[in-house]
Amino acid sequence: MSTPFRCGFVAVVGRPNVGKSTLSNALIGAKVSIVSRKAQTTRHRIHGVLTREHEQFVFVDTPGFQTRHGGAMNRMMNRVVTQTLADVDVVVHVVEAGKWSAGDANLLPLLPKDGTKVILAVNKIDALKNRDDLFAYVGKLASLYPYDAVVPVSALKSRQLDHLLTEIAQRLPEGEPMFEVDALTDRSTRFIAAELIREKIFRLVGDELPYACTVVIEQWEETEKGASVAACIVVERDSHRPILLGAGGQHMKRIATEARQELIKLLDKPVHLEVYIKVRKGWSDKESALRELGYE
Ligand SMILES: Nc1nc2c(ncn2[C@@H]2O[C@H](COP(=O)(O)OP(=O)(O)OP(=O)(O)O)[C@@H](O)[C@H]2O)c(=O)[nH]1
């Protein structure tokens, strides 16, 4: 009898900064969502698809679960997490080896009661000082939730990823592939471009402007020879503008230059990029404004 094909949705969840984006990207094998050293950089649901001989994994990367800040943005983010977990076939709960905080614990009530579809991925094992601690750590977590499997991994060093994929594959339902075989992402290039610009902003001024800005691609003209892109950075307050600009506009210059270089790599052609700032008061706390700007 031939091996049946399996295909299903996989959610990668965990508190901010545990390495969810790095792990999804390493599993999929391409840079589809943006990795940043700052927390809270993945506010969108991102699908990436990995197709193997007998399986297709459709990854849903969810925003960081959080309780520290109030507001419409966070309620929406938590709703996305709950909904995602109910929808998918397999949940990969990512934690950081040796570290367990309130942020991790807060996610447990959102996991399905029955643990059969939940795999615990203990990430960053490369950074662990004492390997023996891992055993006690996993034991403690297993007493908090009935995980169906536990896989220690290093997303950064690509360790144990095949093992994790095998555990996920076993839990996918039988079915035909949902995506074209070479599909990397169902997000448009424009979306990825906006994320690239946002990543540059976070890296440069993320400490001063946490969540306070988003990027909207306002113009996108692309031919075989090149692309012309206009991107608008929407901030909440007038006071955010000088932070983004930096002395003599140096921050904006750097953001635009670095983003342009990445866009050239992404599109593999010359890119003209114009980036400007718009102030829109209180946007991050208004659900309707969020929707308008493309947050689900
Ligand atoms: N040492 C080590 N660092 C890692 C590993 N995986 C991820 N990181 C680092 O951890 C940081 C956070 O990684 P992300 O992938 O952005 O984490 P995230 O959970 O998606 O974060 P949010 O988008 O804030 O929810 C980055 O600096 C990564 O390089 C790993 O296996 N080992």
From TrEMBL:
Residue span of region G1: 14-21
Entry keyword annotation includes rRNA-binding: yes
Annotated segments matching region G5: 153-155
Segments of this protein annotated with the region G2: 40-44
Residue sites binding GTP per the record: 14-21, 61-65, 123-126
Membrane topology type: Peripheral membrane protein
Keywords, ordered alphabetically: Cell inner membrane, Cell membrane, Cytoplasm, GTP-binding, Membrane, Nucleotide-binding, Ribosome biogenesis, RNA-binding, rRNA-binding
GO MF term set: GTP binding; GTPase activity; ribosomal small subunit binding; small ribosomal subunit rRNA binding
Era-type G domain residues: 6-174
Gene3D superfamilies given in the database record: 3.30.300.20, P-loop containing nucleotide triphosphate hydrolases (3.40.50.300)
One cellular component (GO) term of this entry: cytosol
Coiled-coil positions: none
InterPro entries: G_ERA_dom, GTP-bd, GTPase_Era-like, KH_dom-like_a/b, KH_dom_type_2, KH_sf_prok-type, P-loop_NTPase, Small_GTP-bd
Subunit structure of this chain's protein: Monomer.
PANTHER family cross-referenced by the UniProt entry: GTPASE ERA (PTHR42698), GTPASE ERA, MITOCHONDRIAL (PTHR42698:SF1)
Record function comment: An essential GTPase that binds both GDP and GTP, with rapid nucleotide exchange. Plays a role in 16S rRNA processing and 30S ribosomal subunit biogenesis and possibly also in cell cycle regulation and energy metabolism.
Family indicated by similarity: Belongs to the TRAFAC class TrmE-Era-EngA-EngB-Septin-like GTPase superfamily. Era GTPase family.
Protein's UniProt name: GTPase Era
Organism: Corticimicrobacter populi
Gene: era
